[in-house]
Structures are given as C-alpha cells and as structure tokens.
Design goal:
The chain has 230 residues and is mostly helical. It has six helices and three strands; from the N terminus they run ααααβαββα. A three-stranded antiparallel β-sheet has the order 2-1-3. It comes from Leucobacter chromiisoli.
Length: 230
C-alpha cells in the first residue's frame, strides 16, 4: 500500500464499517427516549472512535513505512502510532451531534453523528502521519491530498501539492472531510504558501451562534487567501 490511492481506499473501507456499526447502534434506539440514547451513546462512542481510529492509524503507519521505502529515504526509521482522540473530545462531539434527537429529528442527529465520526476516526491516522514526519530525521514535511469534488476550503489548503514543513502545522478538517495526509522526503518539494488556518478544534462545544461565527471566519479566511493559489 504505497500509493495515496491505496491509502484512500483502505481509509474509506474503515470508515464504511464504522458507519455501518454506528448506524446499527443508533437504529437500536429509534423511537426511544432521547435521554436513553444519549446515555448509551456516551458510553459507547469513545470506545467506538478509539477502535476505528486506531485501525486508521495502523493503516497510516503502514503507508508511511512503505512510502518511505519507495522514496529511498536514508537511515532507519519505523513509524509509530499517534495518541488516540481524547475521550473528552469524543464525548463533546457525541453530545452535540445528538442534539436534534431532543427535537424529534433523529435523521439530523444521525447525519451529524456520522459526519463528525468521519472526522474523529480519521484524526488519529492523520496525526500519525504528522507525528512521524516530525520525528523522522529525513522527512521534509507533509502535503494534503484532496479527492475529486473537494470543497473550496480543502482545495485551498492543499495548495496544489505544496508541502507543509512547519512542525506545528495543524491539519484542519471539517465533518465528512476525506482528505488524506501524505508524507514527503523530496528535498526539492515546493513549500506551501498557504498560511495556517487557525480556528477552534472544539467546535462541537459551540453554541449555534458561535458555530455560525466560525463559519464566517472560514469564509473570510478563504477570501483573504484566495490569491495564494494564483
């Protein structure tokens, strides 16, 4: 699995199984008291995210080692897994996602939960790539790989294949984002010109007005940096 396409397919398969399990869990409580759903979800969800997140991280580590070998990088290095998603982050996402169920809108609750889970499950894998780029002496940095039909936000951050070399660069991702992180050992790779996008990593705890403000921040950031890709 030494190509980004292979990594993307393996990641998609992991997400597909996760979505199946989450949908089955949610369906078991259809029509129940939302409080019962919430209590069960808060017990189930952190472990669910950790299990599928770790599988994604293992895929990322395997890809890293194979890509490193294919790049003929010097020295000995073996990828390790980044830490899992913090339990409190998973709990916060779950509490936010099921909010519509308390307004008898279970479909929206499930949609929000699946979208947020896509982001959280991929987080450990993405962190694993960045984690190892930081520790691998010969790695130059990492780049963002989008898929066909990606949103403007992701295309902007991808910067036409530019490599992020700043050690502290954060991989910004939205719910349902399918971008992947790819490491680079190419010393001649063009460094990304797109500034880091900085916003709260805990949008799940935001009130509706705060989330709208965050969306406006994203739109303003896109407008301010539109010329970076010209």
């Amino acid at each position: 699995m030494a190509t980004v396409a292979d990594l993307r397919l393996a990641t998609a398969e992991n997400l597909r199984w996760a979505q199946r399990d989450l949908t089955e869990f949610f369906g078991a409580y259809a029509g129940a008291d939302p409080i019962e759903l919430r209590d069960a979800l808060l017990e189930f969800y952190p472990d669910f995210v950790q299990v599928y997140g770790e599988q994604g991280a293992e895929l990322a580590a395997e890809f890293y080692d194979e890509a490193r070998a294919a790049a003929l990088a010097s020295g000995q290095y073996r990828a390790s897994l980044a830490p899992p998603v913090p339990q409190e982050q998973a709990v916060g996402v779950a509490k936010w996602a099921i909010g519509p169920a308390f307004e008898d809108n279970w479909d929206s609750a499930l949609q929000q939960l699946v979208g947020a889970s896509t982001r959280l499950i991929q987080q450990q894998g993405r962190d694993t790539m960045r984690w190892n780029v930081d520790r691998d002496p010969t790695a130059v940095g990492w780049r963002r790989e989008t898929r066909a039909g990606s949103c403007q936000f992701c295309r902007m951050l991808a910067d036409r294949g530019g490599v992020y070399s700043k050690k502290s660069a954060y991989f910004a991702a939205h719910d349902n984002c399918r971008c992947v992180v790819a490491p680079s050992w190419d010393q001649s790779a063009r460094r990304s010109r797109v500034p880091d996008f900085k916003t709260s990593e805990r949008t799940s705890r935001m009130k509706p007005a705060q989330r709208e403000a965050a969306k406006r921040q994203v739109k303003q950031w896109l407008a301010d940096n539109a010329d970076k890709l010209t």
